[in-house]
């Protein structure tokens, strides 16, 4: 059974691109428009293995989303990779401090993104 990735980004273009890259590698992909949409999908899907999330999104930003997940026992251990335009050291430290496992700055190279996902999934 393929690993299942949740892609969270308010940009449809980014969601589609990341989803295409991950599907091309054989992963199952679900996408969400923001943190609230992602939580709704997580609560209804039991097999999410990894999350790739943006930071700057409406309704619920990526940092709040990560913090919310890490406060819940069920989601504490799901690997989370941030994919954001915010690439300053303070942004990276904040994301990692809230519980992200990896921080990638847009635009991320597809090969590097795939390599990082495989590393986080232990593949």
Characterise this structure.
One of its GO terms (biological process) is phosphorelay signal transduction system. It comes from Desulfovibrio litoralis DSM 11393. Residues 4-121 form the Response regulatory domain. The modification 4-aspartylphosphate is found at residue 54. This is Two-component system, chemotaxis family, response regulator CheY. There is one protein chain. The protein has 123 residues and is of the alpha/beta class. The protein has a single domain (4-121), classed as Rossmann fold. 44% of the residues lie in helices and 19% in strands. The chain is built from five helices and five strands, in the order βαβαβαβαβα. The protein has a five-stranded parallel beta sheet, sandwiched between helices. α1 (12-24) links the parallel β1 and β2. α2 (35-44) packs parallel to α3. The two termini are 13 Å apart.
Strand % is 15-25%
Question: What's the CATH superfamily, by name?
Answer: Response regulator
* CATH level-1 class: Alpha Beta
Total DSSP E strands: 5
Number of helices: 5
**Sequence of secondary-structure elements:** EHEHEHEHEH
- Strand arrangement within the widest β-sheet reads 2-1-3-4-5
CATH architecture assignment name: 3-Layer(aba) Sandwich
CATH-derived topology: Rossmann fold
- The residue fraction in helices comes out at 40-55%
Structural class: alpha/beta
Unreliable parts: none
Mean pLDDT: 95
| Amino- and carboxy-terminal Cα gap | 13 Å
The biggest beta sheet reads: 5 strands, parallel
Counting structural domains, the number is 1
Question: What form results from the Cα inertia axes?
Answer: globular
Rounded to the nearest angstrom, the radius of gyration is 13 Å
């Amino acid at each position: 059974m393929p690993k299942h990735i949740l892609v969270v980004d308010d940009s449809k273009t980014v969601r589609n691109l990341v989803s295409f890259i991950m599907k091309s590698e054989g992963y199952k992909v679900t996408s969400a428009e923001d943190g609230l949409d992602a939580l709704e999908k997580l609560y209804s899907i039991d097999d999410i293995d990894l999350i790739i999330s943006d930071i700057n999104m409406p309704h619920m930003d990526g940092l709040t989303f990560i913090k919310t997940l890490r406060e819940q026992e069920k989601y504490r251990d799901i690997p989370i990779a941030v994919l954001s335009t915010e690439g300053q050291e303070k942004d990276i430290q904040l994301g990692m401090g809230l519980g992200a496992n990896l921080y990638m700055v847009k635009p991320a190279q597809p090969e590097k993104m795939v390599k990082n996902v495989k590393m986080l999934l232990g593949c």
